[in-house]
Design goal:
heterodimer; A: about 140 residues; mainly beta; 3-stranded antiparallel beta sheet; about 35% strand; globular; B: about 375 residues; alpha/beta; 9-stranded mixed beta sheet; two-stranded antiparallel sheet; about 35% helix; about 20% strand
């Protein structure tokens, strides 16, 4: 059984998925009002301007909430895995998973940084790791 | 022109619930419609409006039309509403508006599904998880319990709420179900039982999660002046309110405060009543944390104090505010979208005084709250015996 693939990786969201393939988290950034938004839309949800630009985000964020899934969605999703809502430094919130740590290490407010998980030649998805030492480098 | 007391619920009927094999959702829905109309002392020909919700185990493109045809009804208003678990109260609000506008006189709201017998467990899980964003949420594998766990975890981090607070809701709801012969789960449980049950999506455990059931239910809504001459004591719709804040949990306006604030405030304002005036509340309990958030957002306790409220007051039989007196979706039944219908029919029966062992003494007014999506669309209804 396969994991659930994003349905639309072309069109409006193409720059996002291209960025993921190239190891860069890209978000829409409104040239008129400076608002960052995710998920992509053909207009700015803050000021209504058309065609927000795509820009690289810092890739840094904090955990807004999380849940360690103990009963996976299907055999393609092997439990436990940690679903999280990440507040990106630029403002938008996105769903992802936290990888590379014991599930118990994840806390609300923990700083995280994006990395990319390659699913196929054409598809990579952003996932997050806890910053080492709680973000203190 | 206000909806306050313009309409009344005059008929209510639940089919068998729990594990009901060998019967299709269409058959359950038809049984519920016929039962509710008969309960009202009306004939099918008196029904000029029909509102339904589609069934996951038997999707039909034009569901309400198909049900009307099945019963040979020829209504003036025929709508299939898909606002998930919130459909029950949302549909009634719009039915009441159509009645007040003179468009129709008598509307049946009916919903049924067979999540338990008509779908495999994996099919049911995937169907429900499809509420996630197809491109930006679902690929990560969130389950429905995980979506609600995100709300629970955020509430715990912000307000110090603990898993045993959530567990108390499961325990008290089961205590109600123990008094209801139709409930799917009736054996009493303890907080320790909940905390020792199988982990599903932290902090939620199996007994924090609602059931997966078959079942159908229907109600009849008509003009208040017509209601007085029918078979049963009318239960008046005193206040309606709605609030909508997002579809996907990653886009929620606020993880710990819901649009139940708006829907509750609007319903109380229309009814001219407040939280202290109610004998019971039937709240949407797909998972235990939803009840806690709704208690806060509907004003039964202060924001952030749901945990301490539950620890001190509880929601069981004899509590200051009994919640889900039929046993809720946690213990009575949860066939998916129809889940809140059973909260509604229970509220009708409580206000008619028909609930026997579990009757809330002297119940004059009560509340039904339903929500759909992942705490996305909220609808509140205040009901009363008197106008």
């Amino acid at each position: 059984m396969e994991r659930i693939q994003p349905q639309r990786t072309d069109g409006l969201a193409a720059p996002y998925f291209a960025g993921c393939r190239e190891g860069e988290l890209r978000l829409q950034h409104c040239p008129s009002c400076g608002h960052w938004q995710f998920y992509p839309r053909p207009f700015c949800t803050a000021c209504g301007a058309d065609a927000p630009a795509w820009e690289a985000a810092s890739g840094h964020g904090t955990v807004a909430s999380f849940s360690v899934v103990r009963r996976g969605l299907s055999p393609a999703y092997e439990a436990p895995y940690t679903i999280a809502l990440v507040d990106l430094a630029e403002g938008p919130r996105m769903m992802s998973v936290i990888i590379g740590c014991e599930p118990e290490a994840v806390k609300v407010g923990a700083p995280v940084t994006v990395c990319f998980e390659q699913w196929s030649e054409d598809l990579s998805l952003p996932v997050f790791r806890l910053d080492e030492n709680g973000g203190v480098k | 022109m206000s909806l306050r007391a313009a309409t009344a619920l005059v008929g209510a009927f639940d089919t068998a619930v729990g594990v009901v094999p060998g019967v299709t959702p269409t058959e359950l829905c038809a049984e519920a419609i016929r039962g509710a109309v008969a309960d009202a002392g009306l004939a099918l020909g008196d029904v000029d409006g029909l509102i339904t919700c589609n069934a996951m185990a038997q999707p039909i493109l034009y569901h309400a039309e198909a049900m009307a045809e099945y019963l040979q009804l020829f209504p003036k208003l025929c709508l299939t509403l898909p606002t998930g678990g919130g459909t029950t109260v949302t549909a009634l609000a719009h039915a009441a508006a159509a009645i007040l506008a003179g468009e129709v006189d008598t509307v049946v709201l009916a919903m049924a599904d067979s999540l338990r017998s008509g779908l495999t467990r994996d099919q049911a899980m995937r169907m429900q998880s499809s509420t996630g964003h197809p491109d930006f949420e679902q690929p990560y594998g969130p389950t429905v319990p995980a979506y609600y766990a995100l709300i629970a975890q955020a509430h715990m981090a912000r307000y110090g709420t603990r898993p045993e607070h959530f567990a108390r809701i499961a325990v008290d709801t089961r205590a109600h179900a123990a008094r209801n012969a139709t409930a799917q789960k009736r054996d009493p449980i303890t907080v320790d039982d909940v905390l020792a049950s199988r982990p599903i999506a932290d902090p939620l455990r199996l007994l924090d999660c609602s059931l997966v059931s078959d079942g159908g239910s229907a109600v009849v809504l008509t003009r208040a002046d017509r209601a007085r001459d029918l078979a049963r004591p009318p239960v008046y719709c005193l206040g309606f309110g709605e609030g909508h804040s997002h579809e996907h949990i990653s886009q929620a306006r606020d993880l710990t405060a819901s649009a139940a604030r708006e829907s509750g405030a609007a319903a109380f304002a229309m009814a001219g009543l407040g939280p202290a005036d109610l004998a019971f509340a039937q709240l949407y309990d797909c998972f235990t944390p939803t009840v806690l958030v709704e208690l806060e957002d509907l004003g039964f306790c202060e924001k952030g104090e749901g945990g301490t409220y539950l620890a001190s007051e509880g929601t069981g039989p004899g509590a200051r505010l009994p919640v889900n007196t039929h046993g809720g979706m946690l213990s009575h039944c949860h066939p998916g979208n129809p889940g809140a219908m059973f909260a509604l029919t229970e509220a009708v029966r409580q206000l008619r005084g028909e609930c026997g062992e579990r009757q809330v003494a002297g119940a004059e007014a009560g509340l039904v709250h339903a929500q759909g999506g992942i705490m996305s669309s909220h609808a509140t209804l205040v009901l009363g015996r008197e106008v």
